[in-house]
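Why this split exists: single-chain examples teach little about how molecules sit against one another. For that reason, every record in the complexes split bundles all components of an assembly together and asks for one structure covering all of them. Below is a record exactly as it appears in the raw files.
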Amino acid sequence: MKALRNYIDKIKPNVEEGGKFHYLRSTFEAFETFLFVPRTVTKKGSHIRDAIDLKRTMFMVVIALIPALLFGMWNVGYQHNLSIGVDATLMSNFFYGFWLVVPIIIVSYVVGLGTEFVFAQIRGHEVNEGFLVSGFLIPLIVPVTTPLWMVAVATIFAVIIGKEVFGGTGMNIMNPALIARAFLFFAYPSNMSGDKVWIADKADAFSGATPLGQLMTATDKIELPSVADAFFGFIPGSVGETSTFAILLGAIILLWTGIASWRVMFSVFVGGFAMGLLFNAVGANHYMNDVPAYYHLILGGFAFGAVFMATDPVSAAQTNTGKYIYGLLIGIMAVLIRVLNPAYPEGMMLAILLLNVFAPLIDHYVVQANIKRRIKRAKLIAVNH
Amino acid sequence: MSEIIKIKKGLLIKLQGEADRTVSELRSTKYALKPTDFIGVFPKLKVKEGDKVKAGSPVFFDKYRENIQFTSPVSGTITEIKRGAKRVLLEIRIEADDKNEYVDFGAANPISLNREAITEKLLQSGLWSCIRQRPYSTIADPTQNPKAIFISGFDNGPLAVDYDFILHGKGEVFQAGLNALAKLSSGKLHLNLHALDTQTRVLLNAKNVEINLFKGKYPASLVGTQIAALDPINKGEVVWTVNVQDVLIIGNLFLKGHYDADKLFAIAGSEVLKPHYVKAKKGVCIQELISGNVSKKNNRYISGNPLTGTKIESNGYLSYYHNQLSVIPEGDHSQFIGWITPNLNKFSFYRSLFSWFTPNKTYQLDTNLNGGVRAFVMTGQFEKVFPFDIYPMQLIKAILSRDIDAMENLGIYEIDAEDFALIEFISTSKIEIQSVVADGLEFLRKEMS
């Protein structure tokens, strides 16, 4: 590694102030800090620092996403072979999906990071690690049949409108990956919903609708997938969302490392389940009668949204109390949209985006309570004196 | 004695090189007073280079509060007046002679003195500067009657001194200091001790004070944490704080009638060959302290502890309020893909690394930032090490945006920069939060005056 270090030190002057390629400074720094944690030392304040940094934090999230990704790749192959009636091996299912999903990941990363680099370059900032996660999330929340150019356009839109216009990672209001998903959903609806998009190269005779899609259009009692199929994810859907089991493996990593807030995750599930129970109790139509509340938690993007999207620290509520409220409302809204809105079979994306917008308001009221307590304490003492 | 107050939030950072409980004595000839140790003081010199001073002779005073003066810890000669950019006074260096001459302020039993007489003696001797106030951590205003006075009787910061050890056999002096301080406020004089670790009778049997017992990780020993738990500061209120070793110095003033600047300093840290205690006077030069007793690496010398202390040079001087010299390695080396390697030798608050596997391990931490500076991304982390009824992130943002109303509402009067040291340590974003808070407090103080 010494040779690499020396080489970097040798070419570094070229990108520094006054160097030949000084305009590439941000890009150079991004690669340098990727290879080497810099030699920067503390100046004042706390002279020692925790070994954590944002790169490691973001990388842990990527690790947590891997079970969902691997399962998703396999499921792409499995659904394809199921639709054409072929009984394929584990590995052939996996590699069928692998070759379809990897290009989406590459496009998402190359296009997204490219956009980030350009912005960092223009602003003279360091490149932020936020997109390491966003770039991994985007391929997991789109149908496997999404054309690559759409992924590229959506990614650019998400990075620029979802993040950079607000000032970059940490400043954005909404979750960038979900912005990409919403952009695709509203700009190219025929590629993002219906029963044609979820299974790659599907046989025409085979119904490829997601269970939620079937539920939305059903006028009669429908056959739901078994709990095991829904929980383990042997159903059509976006690449990474189908297996609640794989998602929960990721959740364990995120909760154990403390990167994701258990308050948010837990309350999203509670909110969704409570709303499901309420609809079961009302029982006004087939949907409300025939779908037990817990099905909402294992179908569609609910679990994926609860574990990986709602917990995004930047766009979620920031206070601990606020996180409970934020999570509960996401769960409630997601099921509400699923059951009552006739146009959208899946409510998770819109519920999270909506609550992203309201998170600062929730925090505002939580913080106000603290402020009132402080003012009251001061008054109480003033009265006693 | 009331019930034990448990501080649940916090973090113990165990560093290598804790000081052994042995004492050596250092009679150095080099001392300095550093006006930069005193927040909000605009120094005006009373001496010039070449002047002779005794221990207790005034060296400089505050331009805006002329009765607040700062006196020489030793008898000797003013050798150099060091200024920095814009002629800011940095150091007034004093070379000690071997005469040990003291200015005599007259011994007196504080119990028989009234508040005015005690204040006068402290102001004359320059030892009023041992009493600081919250908010702002400036030197207390002698005309004010504080709500209460707080003394933290233990320190569980990294490499901290053991007050039990320091106070051994000094019960009479300590009590004299407490008796003097008790007269300065119509409110309580709080002496805050550790429920398990405090063993010495000097502390446990102290009279004329309200003893409170605390339990918990650092920052339970910070006086700010204790104030928040016992009697939080509201807008318009003022409390005073005094360090244990300064109580001894004040006690000696009344018992002996002169300024005895002797303190016990811990010389600690992984780069110290023989970490131990040194008896020396305030403002001592560290050159002799470290000679032959530190590793030959590129080291960071810190007056105070590694979380809240001040960086000094290897020939610098210990600061006025600090009880320890910490020596740790500089971290000016880069680490290949260090953001993904396991880093078993590094300490972390988080479970993304592995130090939680080995809770009793002591660490040799260096000064590397361990990453790059980023915007705030993670939330909910600061709250875990911040034992205040305050939203730290929101307060930091209010400070950054210089929004005075928001700062007041969110509790800025209750805190000091050092209360944010752990937050700064664990911050994923590597932002210099103590500086942000200190700047915010200074901004507020200037706006309010």
